[in-house]
# Entry
Amino acid sequence: MTHSRKSITGSNIDYRKHLIVKPGSKVDLSSIDPGFKAPHDSKASSQGLLAKCVQRLAELQYLIYAENRRSLLICLQGLDAAGKDGTIRHVLGAMNPQGARVHAFKVPSTLEAAHDFLWRAHQQAPARGEVVVFNRSHYEDVLVARVHGLVPKDVWSKRYDRINDFEKNITQGGTHILKFFLHISDEEQLQRFKQRLVDPKRQWKISEADYTERKLWPEYVRAYEEALSRTSTSNAPWFVIPADRKWFRNLAIGTILVQTLESLRMKTPAPTVDIDDIRRRYHVAQRDQKKVASGQRTAGFNQP
Ligand code: AMP
Ligand code: MG
# Structure
C-alpha cells in the first residue's frame, strides 16, 4: 500500500498507485478484495468528498474543452450489475454535455459486425477537447467474444496486441486513456439482481442474460485477468476498482480522474485577441451605450 500526502479524498491512500494494474504485472482477481475500502472511510464521510471531486471534475472537463488540445477516454468495464451506469450517473454526470458524452457498446450491429472489431471504437474515440466515456468498450471483443466463443481463439488471442496498438495510436494523437474494471463479488451481484427483482423501478434492467452470464463467472474472471494483465500500459492503464461498496467505487474513480487530470496542469487558453485593444473598444462601446441610454431617458421625458 502506498501512502502519500492527503489528497482531495482526505484519505492517505493514493488510489492511483494503489489500484493501478502495473504494466507487465499478472492480475489475480481473487487476491483483490471487492469490498475493500480505505481505512476510516465510510459512506457518510465520503459524501462531501465525492461532491468536491465531482465538482472539480466538471471544472477539469471544462479545461479540456477550452484548451481544445487533448481529449480523455474513460473505459468502464465490469460484469453485469458491477455499477457502470451508477458510476456514470454519480461521478461523471456533472460534466457539461458540451464536450462530454457517453457511448454504450452493445451487441455489434450488422454494419459494425461487418467491420474490424476496432472500427466502432475508433469511430467513437474522442475528438480534441472531448471527454468520452465508453460504457463497455472494445474490450468486449476479448471478453464476451472469448467466453462465448464468438470467434476462434486464434482470432481473439491476437486482439490484445491490436488493442495496445490502437490505444497507443490514439494516445499519440493526444488522447489520455483511463480504464476502470469494476470488481464486484458474486454475492454482491446476486444481491443487486435481487434489488432489481423487488424494486419495480429497477425491473427494466433485468435481462435473461444476467443469469446465463453469471453461470460463466469463472470464464469471465479468466478473460478479465488476461485482458487486464496484457493491456495495462503506461499510456492506457487499467485500475481494478473494488466495487462492492458503491460509495468507495465512486470516490476511487472520481479521485483517480481528478488526480490524473490535475497532473496535466491545464490552463484556460491564452486569448486570441489583443486584450488592450479590446478593452479600449469595450470602453468606447460602454460610452456609446450610456449616451444612447440617456438619450432614451430624455426622449421619454419629452413625451406628452
Ligand atoms: P448492457 O451493457 O447490459 O446494455 O448489455 C450490452 C450487451 O452487449 C452485453 O451483454 C455485452 O456483452 C454485449 N456486447 C457488447 N459488445 C459486444 C461484442 N463486441 N460482441 C458481442 N456482444 C457484445
Ligand atoms: Mg446488462
The chain is about 50% helix and 10% strand. Confidence is low (pLDDT under 50) at residues 1-8. The chain has two domains: 2-262, 274-304. Residues 105-108, 136, 140-141, 144-145, 150, 209 surround adenosine monophosphate (ligand 1) (CB under 6 Å).
